[in-house]
Queue: 3 jobs
Job 1
Amino acid sequence: MPSNRCVSRSSNLLRSNPESSARHCCHQSLPYSQHTQTTSTMSLKNDKFPSSAAFDAINDALKSDADKKDAIKKGNAVFAFNLKNAAGETESWHIDLKNKGEVGKGLGQKPTVTLSLSDADFGNLVTGKANAQRLFMSGKLKIKGDVMKATKMEPILAKAKL
């Protein structure tokens, strides 16, 4: 029995060789190739945080190798976002533009800069209705870490056409 785990991080082990599309993942009746396809493209959006759809848009913008390399060259940092919704709940996402050029949930590994703001302000920032400098000066955006790297985030957020 192979020691590979399915990408959904199930404690169940795969029954089949990952290269075999004819066999099934042990906890779903999908061929392994279909299972990885559906779970590896899972949305980063959280319905309680409407602006979180921007992370899917940024992830889509980084799909091509050329775009990914360009973003890594321009960003050269791991950006973490702590968003707070109207109900007072907090959720985190990260954009790794230092190593892998990927977007994910959670703070990521060793964020270079962490930006904390409300979900509504993040949505306004992504759509261009708000300016990061103004949000920072008004206390609505809190920055922890390398403030200069934070200035490189706005062009990356512009890729998220909501």
Job 2
Amino acid sequence: MEPTPTPATSTIPSAARSGIPTLAAAADLWLHALGPLDRARRALWRLGCRLRLGRDAVTDRSLRLSLVAGGHILVAFALTAVAPLWLLLLGPIVLGVPHVASDLRYLVIRPPLPLGRAPIVAILVGLGAMTALRVGAALGGPLLLGPEVALGGGAILAAIALTPGRARWRPVALAVVAALTVYGVLHPADTALWVGHLHNLVAFGWWLTLARDGGPWRRVAWVAALYVAAAAAILAGALDGLFALAWSGDAAGLEVDGLAATLAPGAAPVVAVRLVTLFAFAQAVHYAVWLRLVPQRLAPRKAPPSLGRSVRDLRADLGAWGLRAVVALSVLVPLAALVDAYETRSLYLLLVLFHGWLELAVLGALLVARPGRQT
């Protein structure tokens, strides 16, 4: 475990420490909370280290992350069982911006394998155009699903075509993605629905691959089995009685009928509720993957990172003002939700469609990228 940062390595900028009333210092006031939080974190680790499992978890990152992943899956399943509406309402509002920032950090700024500049630029251009279409829709324009799917498919194709790596896989991957893109443009609503559901699985599957590289396969296997068991229980209807109570009423205007029409259109009522419930569970795990599991797996140090260290690493990747922008948006979205939670959630989801396609595009690039040594 790391020591408390010394003044020479403090997370708090010098302007904030000296009391100079600058805009940067005002934007960084939240950093003062890291010291007390880190002290509480160290106290919890000392408590956990009284057990052998806790001591092993400090030194063995693979073991620690498998335990953390299993814990998040159980918590996600429990919250899905008792409060799925509130999970679907508050998850995007509270965790949406940080998880999109993590997407960009680990897929664009420093992907796990070197992809080169060309595929990253191509992905960003395509998904930037997609986001522009979404901004137009948010301002009252039409929702152009067909062009969005074409841009998303084009981003994946460009990523596969431009990433240096395995030449033998490239033609097959390009042919498959091209065929799926044509189908998607012809059936844009169905494609958008599938992307919405499947992108929750992409990050979890990627983390399993990363975790497998860092420890025994048995640790990955039991986490994957736990996830599959939870999903199977939801789809099989094992908890339908409990879910019937959990789905009653609404959460700030969000109700099951509207969610079913969006996430499971045309499905029988019972099947629709199960699919929406599965989405709530998978989304909760998805957030855990991007906010806990991937950052800790790709951290340069194997010991549990302090909050101060995590913030310094994040600032190194995003830049000082990039970090401030993420923090500001992470605060502004929940504040806006205090006025109208339903509309805030809807606007957030409208504007961040690109991140699901980003995950698929970078995954496509990683499939053909030259293997490199991972930490």
Job 3
Amino acid sequence: MRDTESSTHPSLPLVAMAFLSHSMLQFTSFDNINLHFKLAKLVQRFGKIQAHNNKDGMSNMQWLSKIFESGAEFLDANFLPAMLISAVIVGLLFPKVGLCAHGFGLSKWATFGVFLISGLSLRTSEIGGVIYAWAPLLFGVVSSLFITPLVAVLILRFTINPKEFVTGLALFSCMPTTLSSGVSLTQMAGANTALALSLTLISNFLGLFTIPLMISILVAPTLGVSVPAGSLVKSLVQTSLIPLVIGKVIRACASGFIDARRKQLSMLSTIFLVLVPWMQISHGRDLFLSVKMQNIVAVGTLGMVMHWIFLAWNSFIMFKCTGDEDLHQKKYNSWAIILTASQKTLPVAIAVIGCLGNSMGEPGLLVLPCLISHISQIVFDSFLVQRWIQDDLQKYQNFN
């Protein structure tokens, strides 16, 4: 099942957005002679490929059809990363369009759309039996909202230019769990999906109140700024909770119609999601172009290390510090908590950065480490789930 936050592919590098953006800008700065030369080489290569395919008996239409089919499959499997990369490139190449869209207030409507679709897609019928796993659920909520954000203090000690990179990553650590990818990966692993869904709902609701608190305590003092917690809570309720509730109410009346169109809704949600960073990057274009590639790699690496710390902490508690329950049941609950409590949500981070305005730096630069960290955590956890499944299969085969 594909969703807004988990549509990715391991072959995509963590810095693909920044690398492609810089490359495109450098390409458009070539003079006409170099441009014509490159186009001529491209046409020559195309001709050689075409001749080779014709020699093998493949017609031009068949060859083009195969190319488009492969491209469509790749885009379908990597829709979120592809859209994020496109948003960065378009924002840098055509900043006036993004600035114009921001002037019409499209940012707020795009965020509203993301959470409206989240409400439409939200299935709560499975969470009734989670009362029997109340202890793991309680730990997951506390870990996601109060313990993992403490890493922000360590992150802010790093010096990476521009300073918005570490600030954005620190803000990202204060977010609740992902809206959908944690549940999807839990389901893929065969773990307690109801527990993962309950943790997602509770942490994202309570996060409306804990996010301003954590930012005020852990991030703002280091930067020498103050965060109006009351107004931030109000903004988050307006931009995330209200549309989520509206979507859930609509779902209650038309769940069959909505479930039949989950894929289309997921793609629409992704489009809404990338509109906000597109506008923010358009606004901070000049600053972004001054960033060195090694700094982008550095903040991407730091974001990955942050996620590993979350995984290690949650794994230690769930496997080493819990009771002597049945091993299968412990694994069933532990995998759900480890996956969901270790991830941080991108849509809420974008909404928070939008509410903060320029108080902590250029929004476009604050968003970039969140984008990179979000993709990297989903990619790594996808590998982790596959490893868990393979280990279980190997143990089963050895037992038999």
